[in-house]
Design goal:
The complex is a heterodimer of chains A (391) and B (234). By secondary structure, chain A is α+β, with helices and mostly antiparallel strands. Chain A folds into two domains: 184 residues, no CATH class; 163 residues, no CATH class. Helices cover 53% and strands 15% of the residues of chain A. Chain A has a nine-stranded mixed beta sheet. Chain A has a two-stranded antiparallel sheet with strand order 2-9. In chain A, helix 3 packs antiparallel against helix 11, helix 3 packs across helix 13 and helix 11 runs parallel beside helix 14. By secondary structure, chain B is an alpha/beta fold. Chain B has a single domain, classed as P-loop containing nucleotide triphosphate hydrolases (Rossmann fold, 3-Layer(aba) Sandwich). In chain B, the strands form two sheets. Chain B has a six-stranded mixed beta sheet. Chain B has a four-stranded antiparallel beta sheet with strand order 2-1-4-5, covered by helices on one side. Classes of the chains: A alpha+beta (391), B alpha/beta (234). Chains A and B meet through helix 2, helix 12, helix 13 and helix 15 of A and helix 2 and strand 6 of B.
Chain lengths: 391, 234
């Protein structure tokens, strides 16, 4: 191998020393790149959580949700439950209603769903509840079942009473906590009996369901079952839309507007900003060292080697920025995931290993791209011109 | 008869400054033999630096021919010239021009990284060069931790590290006090006489020029006939 071909590898220490020679500037550049790529990482994680990730557990892939085709805010007649139960492939079904409400203060946000308790454990076989608690929850119309972490967060225990002040529904409901459950995911949920809700409402607002939750006999059946359910009500007054539980959760995001467009627009703005930040920093750094470029050329460095070293510096800085950005993004994802209360799949939001690789690759590509122009200019400066430069 | 290492015939260099043309070097003929220590003198703008740049392949002539070590440098592309400089030329500058983020040893090792030597060989050679200039105890010092004279000695060590045929010195004593200047000139003289290095030095300093074996004057781009001066004893 030509010794010059291996030269760049030998200059890693010089590249590092040049990249960190102005420590304050390098630190600020790394910090600004880290902030930008942290945002990019979080946006990527949000996008994946909202639009791509699916509950891959055996039961998760068998769960379907049917709702009013017009909107989530529109309800369906309770008579649909019996009809859907007849659809081949449906193993279990229950009416399922978002209650909303306020527990003590609006900031105490967690999911509160009215359900049919007996069917709940069929549809969520992964829920682990003590048998006596399960029986007590099914038997008590005012009973409530809470995720164990959620109960711990609000220092609630079995036997306590909990009152939810209605906001969507014009009723305040008092519940007896009958059981606590453990689950593989999404424990920040409170379940209660939909009968209790119906009986508390005026007669004209009873016997409806916002959604129906089903368990199909197999994951392979699910798409066909969903199609059959929607076909069943194609000519009905209230048409339905049936989708997987994950897709349903993601549809909550549509309330926020065109989230995909927002995410892409913000990502593009970040990327452009990073390009400018990196380009400016490298340009400043190169301007201060024009004379050194001349010296290196007198020692035998070629234009390509000079350019390679400057690009190397940009890569080092952007790689560091990308790495720290990923670390912060990872921690933020963890925080958002913990505080999401199961909203729109955000509970599963994380910076997966492939996202680390993607964000860091993007960092390197952007950093290198931004440095190409100043690096090219420096490498093309003649020795005499460079040596005359007094900085 | 000594081998001619630098041979220039009718060498000219013209610069364009806005709409004006400046003839920095005009039909210059010069022959420098291996082992000579040539001092190029002359007032500012006389063309001495331009001639030095052409000899060191830092610039290309407008017309004429120059062969250095038997090679016609006008035939080389930029990358080939860079390789050629690394193998055959060592530079010593008025402003020392060390890389500030590198230690003395790393500065001297830098041109060796472009050779086929492995890490150990490079370090050994750089250490030898530093000991030769009397800086064996300053190897891990950064340029800012050295005096001007010491910095120039590191620069000399860097220039000789690759064992080049020709040393080019551009006002090597210009930024030094009298004692350091004298030390540097003695060192260059030693490299010339003990190690047979061909040295081409541009200088304004009459005292520095006395260490050379040949002094050539340039005026308005023209090379004046060779003049014999009394030489400084080693």
């Amino acid at each position: 191998m030509d010794p010059r071909e291996k030269a760049l590898g030998q200059f890693i220490s010089l590249i590092w020393k040049n990249a960190t020679r102005n420590r304050r500037r390098s630190l600020l550049t790394v910090a600004s790149i880290a902030a930008s790529f942290c945002l990019l990482g979080v946006l990527l994680a949000i996008y994946v959580a909202l639009f791509i990730s699916r509950d891959e557990s055996p039961a998760g892939s068998r769960r379907l949700v049917t709702r009013n085709r017009i909107s989530l805010t529109q309800v369906m007649p309770i008579s649909y439950e019996a009809k859907i139960r007849q659809v081949p492939g449906v193993e279990a079904i229950m009416a399922y209603q978002w209650f909303g409400g306020v527990y003590k203060e609006p900031k105490n946000f967690f999911a509160r769903f009215a359900c049919e308790p007996a069917q709940l454990f069929q549809i969520y076989p992964d829920y682990r509840v003590a048998e006596d608690e399960k029986r007590a929850f099914i038997a008590d119309r005012a009973g409530a079942l809470l995720g164990r972490d959620l109960a711990a967060k609000y220092q609630l225990k079995v036997g306590d009473k909990i009152t939810l002040k209605g906001d969507i529904f014009p009723v305040d409901l008092e519940f007896n906590i009958r059981g606590l459950f453990d689950a593989d995911k999404n424990e920040d949920v409170m379940w209660f009996n939909i009968d209790y809700l119906w009986k508390s409402l005026p007669a004209d607002r009873r016997d409806f369901a916002g959604t129906y939750l089903m368990l199909t006999q197999s994951a392979e059946d699910s798409p066909a079952v969903a199609q059959q359910i929607d076909s069943l009500f194609r000519n009905a007054q209230v048409r339905t839309k049936t989708e997987s539980e994950s897709a349903f959760a993601a549809s909550f995001v549509s309330f926020l507007g065109n989230v995909k467009l927002y995410l892409f627009a913000i990502s593009a703005a970040i990327t452009f900003t990073i390009l400018l930040v990196c380009g400016n920093t490298i340009a400043m750094s190169v301007r201060e060292r024009v004379r050194e470029v001349g010296i290196m050329k007198t020692l035998g460095f070629t234009n390509g080697e000079v350019m390679g070293m400057i690009l190397g510096e940009a890569t080092v800085i952007s790689l560091l920025g990308g790495f720290f950005g990923c670390v912060i993004a990872y921690l933020l994802c963890k925080a958002v995931s913990g505080a999401s209360g199961g909203f729109a799949n955000l509970e599963g939001m994380t910076l997966a290993p492939w996202m680390w690789v993607t964000v860091m690759t993007a960092a390197v590509v952007m950093g290198t791209l931004a440095a190409i122009w100043p690096a090219w200019g420096a490498s093309r400066t003649s020795i005499i011109e460079a040596m005359r430069y007094s900085g | 008869m000594s081998e001619v290492v630098i041979e220039a015939r009718k060498l000219s260099k013209t610069f364009k400054r806005d709409e004006f043309e400046v003839r920095a070097l005009d039909n210059c003929d010069i022959e420098i033999k291996r082992g000579e220590f040539v001092a190029l003198m002359g007032p500012s703008g006389s063309g001495k630096s331009t001639l030095m740049h052409l000899i060191a392949a830092m610039d290309r002539a407008t017309s004429g021919r120059i062969a250095v070590l038997g090679e016609d440098l006008s035939q080389f592309d930029d990358a080939e010239l860079a390789r050629w400089r690394n193998r055959h030329i060592g530079f010593i500058f008025q402003q020392f021009n060390l890389i500030p983020v590198l230690t003395a040893l790393e500065n001297v090792e830098l041109p060796l990284k472009l050779t086929s030597l492995n890490g150990k060989e490079r370090i050994a050679q750089a250490e030898t060069a530093l000991r030769l200039v009397g800086l064996g105890d300053r190897m891990t010092h950064f340029p800012r931790q050295l005096s001007g004279g010491q910095e120039q000695r590191v620069a000399i060590a860097r220039a000789i590290a690759t064992d080049p045929d020709i040393l080019i010195a551009d006002e090597p004593t210009g930024n030094l006090d009298a004692q350091s200047a004298s030390d540097v000139m003695v060192m260059l003289q030693k490299l010339n006489q003990d190690f047979g290095k061909t040295i081409i030095m541009v200088t304004h300093d009459r005292h520095a020029a006395e260490y050379a074996t040949v002094i050539r004057h340039l005026e308005k781009g023209e090379l004046k006939p060779e003049v014999e001066y009394p030489k400084k004893p080693v």
